Amino acid sequence: MKIAVLASGGVDSSLALRLLKEQGHELTAFYLKIWLEDEAAFLGDCPWQTDLEYLGEVCRQLDVPLQVLPLQREYRGSVVEFAISELKAGRTPSPDIFCNRWIKFGRFYELIDDKFERVASGHYAQIERSNGAGEGDGLVRLLRAPDPVKDQTYFLSHLTQEQLSRALFPIGHLRKSQVRELARRYGLPNQGRRDSQGICFLGKIKYCDFVRFHLGEKEGPIVDAESGEELGRHAGYWFYTIGQRQGLGLGGGPWYVVGKDPQRNAVMVSHAEVYQRRSRRDLVLARLNWIVGPPRREKLRIKVRHGPKLVDCRVRPLEGGRWSVRMAQQDPGIAPGQFGILYDGQECLGGGVIEG
After folding, report:
1. How far is Cα of residue 124 from the mean position of the Cα atoms in its chain?
2. pLDDT 10s digits, 227-275
3. pTM score, two decimals?
4. How far apart are CA 198 and CA 204, in angstroms?
5. SS3 339
6. What is the Cα–Cα distance from 203 to 214, expressed in whole angstroms?
7. Closest by CA position to 168, among listed 5, 348, 342, 346
8. Would you name the residues annotated as active-site residues?
9. How far apart (Å, rounded) are the C-alpha atoms in residues 32 and 49?
10. pLDDT tens by residue, 133-160
11. What Å distances lie between residue 327 and 138, 174, 281, 334, 348, CA to CA?
């Protein structure tokens, strides 16, 4: 097949390139340059250049053509604006979810030659296809990766049938340790490169720096949610999320963030002794995306944040396309604006935004 490969200069997408090359496909690697030049100037360097140097070495080794596709304007107008508007409203966004839907598997699809039969990436996830000719319903399903820590179905949960049907995840069946071992075996130039911890393709930008650049700082009170007493000061409620413990600078802790008041620019906290009392097991999901269709079962599992933890739950539909979720375990860190992603066994069904 003729395949466009989304490559970032990291070991995961580089191994995906190597495996596809070994299978005999016709490949072109694409580096999506979504780094915003304002951020680059703010941090005093151009971090995308190192990524591109590594990727160039890999492509030369594999004899794969490389194209750099600038998508800064599209990224700013969709993902960045969405994240900033959510933060201003006091919610906790997950920009990577919409970077995948709107940019990597959205706008990118529109810009490349339609002769590319598939778009591959280094995501840890699996795709199950059925041909609809007596062997299934013709739908594409998103399945979890065997590595529970690296599994990225949470971030891919808002892709559509059309987007997934064209996607490939060549390393999705592997664990991270296997990816590292294969990278060493193949002698990839970036075999020992550390994983990025940043936003989307912006591997070297820290989230707090991203927020500070766009929203600045605005001093406000840190308030004891139980007593109403002011315990300290903060630099802006947008730097905090519900359930957060680090970075509060308060004595006599531990303290946890339990709420935010954008009107007062206040951050509410509770002491560990009472924090668990604020745990909840009931939530409502809105603006849902179902990959195949609404669930047919009441008993499912849910992730309320990216990570290996899945919690048993029961779901039921509400008016207006919203869904009610009751989790088997209470969670004190549920934050409005985060996403609840639902699973039936290994299959990621999709999910929606957690309402307040």
Report:
1. 12
2. 999 999 999 999 999 989 988 999 988 999 999 999 999 999 999 988 8
3. 0.89
4. 6
5. strand
6. 18
7. 5
8. 99, 200
9. 12
10. 545 578 999 999 999 999 999 999 999 9
11. 32, 30, 5, 11, 17
